[in-house]
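Is adenosine-5'-triphosphate placement plausible here? Inputs below.
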Amino acid sequence: MQKVIGIDAGGTLTKLVFVNEQNELEFKIFPSNDFSQVRNWLENHPHIEEIGLTGGRTQQLLEVLNTMKSIQYLVEFEATFKGVKYLLKKDGYDIENSIITNIGTGTSIHYMEGQSHTRVGGTGIGGGTLTGLSTIITGISDFEDITSKAALGSRELIDLFVKDIFQGMEPPIEGHLTASNFGKVSILKDAKHEVNDLLATVQALVGEVITTLSIQFAEEKKAEHIIYIGSTLINNEHLKKVIANYTILKKHKPIFLKNCGFTGAIGALLNKLEQSKITY
Ligand SMILES: Nc1ncnc2c1ncn2[C@@H]1O[C@H](COP(=O)(O)OP(=O)(O)OP(=O)(O)O)[C@@H](O)[C@H]1O
Ligand SMILES: [Mg+2]
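Reply from A.M.:
I modeled the complex. Tokens:
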């Protein structure tokens, strides 16, 4: 295992990455509300000498680590971009320009063109909204529980679709599109809602808002591709399906990278390796 690691201390999760004995990237996730777990991990890996660091909670993490190791900080957007470039190549993509939508605790949207990138916008609707709303509505707060149950749910009795409004008429847009997220609840007043259905509907709300915004930026920038990243997509096939279907319907190409949650940590690691002139 190399003596360098990359860490992305995010709003909810702290992601850690290093190059293992097999010369492959290995990943760890810690909750950002308990940095002592990161400190313990480092104490158990005393050969780590250098840390590439990024993320909004960098300062808070440094205060807990209180370490003498060599630290190299990289601003989050730069680290994410570096990580995305690396993963695109690793996953076999050759894309010149694209929208990058990072679904973290909140969502940040960027435009990349060649070697440059700019932040074009974002929304407070993100992974934190998914877990927060799910907890308040169903009492379920565990991310894996939320996503696995959502995958079994149906939105039919909760979301109001275009076809529900234009009954007996030809709708002006595709009938299966959402007219109003959760819009059927106040119309079908007596319906009982199952937990799985509620969770599926929350995921769709979050996914559709993020996709709608991403598509608008893709059209403004004339970008064919939208790369969706962030830990909210980890093992979350249901959310990916919502996002992919809508992106494709709007004539854009969605890309989901294999290690979508770790772009920032990978960027921070690569940056530190470059600074220390270590090849990987
Ligand atoms: N094990 C997990 N525990 C909690 N949330 C998880 C877990 N795995 C995935 N998630 C989801 O990932 C989201 C956080 O994504 P990510 O790690 O990309 O954001 P972040 O870097 O912490 O936040 P930000 O970039 O906005 O500062 C959570 O809000 C949740 O929806
Ligand atoms: Mg993040």
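Short version: The chain has a mean pLDDT of 97.
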